[in-house]
Amino acid sequence: MQRYGQIIKLKPDRVEEYKKLHAEVWPDVTKAIAKSNIRNYSIYLKDVMLFAYFEYHGQHFEKDMAEMAANPVIQEWWGVCKPCMIPVENREEGEWWANMEEIFHQD
Questions:
Q1: Which long-range contacts does 43-47 make (Cβ < 8 Å, 24+ apart)?
Q2: Mean of the pLDDT values across residues 22-34?
């Protein structure tokens, strides 16, 4: 199992819209996330900053993420969510959500 932490910002005028979307996540989105071997997925909000945490329980992360990204329902979901977001400036090339380095963990 691998833990992931990620950050992204929200457009200030889209915070309530983003919260509403996630209060009513489409069932096919949650199924696709589970099928991609993602567990214990949470998104936190502070002002306009989002922090996401999830655990990956598969063997082929890039393959599972590519399959999820190719899913038409996920593409549609991202199409309604992405307009609410502003990627952080110091993200790596190709990232939307910026991956974070884990520096401490305690079970």
A1: 45/10, 45/15, 45/19
A2: 98
The pTM is what? 0.92
**Helix, strand and coil in the chain, % to nearest 5:** 40, 30, 30
Quick one: CA dihedral 75, 80, 52, 8, positive or negative? positive
Give the count of domains, the chain.
Answer: 1
Does residue 96 surpass a pLDDT of 90?
yes
Q: Which helix (H) or strand (E) holds 76?
A: helix 72-81
Boundaries of domain holding 30: 2-99
**Amino acid letter at 31?**
K
User: Which residues pair with residue 37 across a beta bridge?
Assistant: none
Tell me whether residue 104 is in a domain: no
So which residues are the catalytic ones? 22
Token digits of residue 62: 């890039």
Pull the structure tokens for residue 52.
């996401």
79 class by beta-carbon count within 10 Å (0-12 exposed, 13-18 middle, 19+ buried): exposed
